[in-house]
Amino acid sequence: MFKPKYFLTPLLAFSLLLGLSACGSDDPQSLTVYSGRSEKLVGPIFEAFEASTGITLEVRYGSSNDLALVLETEGNKTPADVFLSRSPGPVGYLEDQNALAPLSDDILNRVSADHRSPDGNWVGFAGRGRVLVYNIDETTEAELPASVFDLTDERFRDQVAIPGSNSSFQDWFTIFRLRNGDDAAINWLDDMVANGARFYPKNGAIVEAVGRNEIQFGLVNHYYNFQKVAVNGDAQRSANWGFADGDSGGLMIIASAAVLNQSDHQDLAQELIEFLLSDEQQTYLTESVYEYPLAIGVSPSAVLPDTPADTVGAIPIDDVSSAFTRTMEIIEASGILDQ
């Protein structure tokens, strides 16, 4: 049966992960998965795969960035067969290390060209749009900003929540600074702090705080508000606002999957990724999790707006460790975690 193993250390505590022993299995009907997606989101998919195939999954959960570094360090001795990442950066990094196996044409052709590796070694399976969540009783759409840069204006003073310690925000901020440069990223975050931005640890906590009018706005992944509305209905007094097309605040970051080169179970590993991209599981991801499905022919949930135009596929990260360490340095230096 599905056996979660938790490795929830931050990047700066990476050394703790290195001391953990491998948990692979010699059973040819067993796969080891390193998952940067949480059990809450992908655990039901893993359980369905086990029930459908009889293949046992050993799963390590943790930060995508930490797990990529573990895989690099373990090298050919890693027990991992499959790697799931919250964003394309860590899988792109492993691809550059020649650690990933080519995926089958059947897998690659399930998604459009901009949702997979140009070299065919990883594939996207779900999309997460970054949005501004707002309180619908206190703010009209006419008052909402076109750009994430507008949030430093005086009219948003003391009204914006930022999940500075959250991994999804760190993913976004890394891409934000790679696109705009460190100077622009530092200035934006410093200006947000100077404008009274408030720290919340998680996206879900921000959506709840906005819904109860504790704060007016928050930067979150799009699906959190849809999940709260599904539970609370009209009592949830919040909605998502998408920034203008092309604005860095509204990126869609894709969750990605890959097979490790050294896996002794290549066919089974590819079968798991095919399962992730099946109509049934893509429908689950959009109808239950409210993410954007990436498999061709599967439509987003009717409650979701059009797919964000600005999708982040491969991004130029030469060193995933230094890239995210630099991100954390900027976030910590800004003082947002103390707000």
Helix-strand layout with pairing:
Elements: E1 3-7, H1 14-18, E2 30-35, H2 39-53, E3 56-62, H3 64-74, E4 82-85, H4 88-96, H5 105-108, E5 123-135, E6 160-162, H6 167-180, H7 182-194, E7 198-199, H8 203-211, E8 217-221, H9 223-232, E9 238-241, E10 252-259, H10 266-276, H11 279-287, E11 292-293, E12 311-312, H12 320-334
Parallel strand pairs: 1-3, 2-3, 2-4, 6-7, 6-8, 10-12
Antiparallel strand pairs: 4-10, 5-8, 5-9, 5-10, 5-11
Summarize this structure as a short list of keywords or feature phrases:
single chain; 339 residues; alpha/beta; D-Maltodextrin-Binding Protein, domain 2; twelve-stranded mixed beta sheet; 12 helices; 12 strands; 37% helix; disordered N terminus
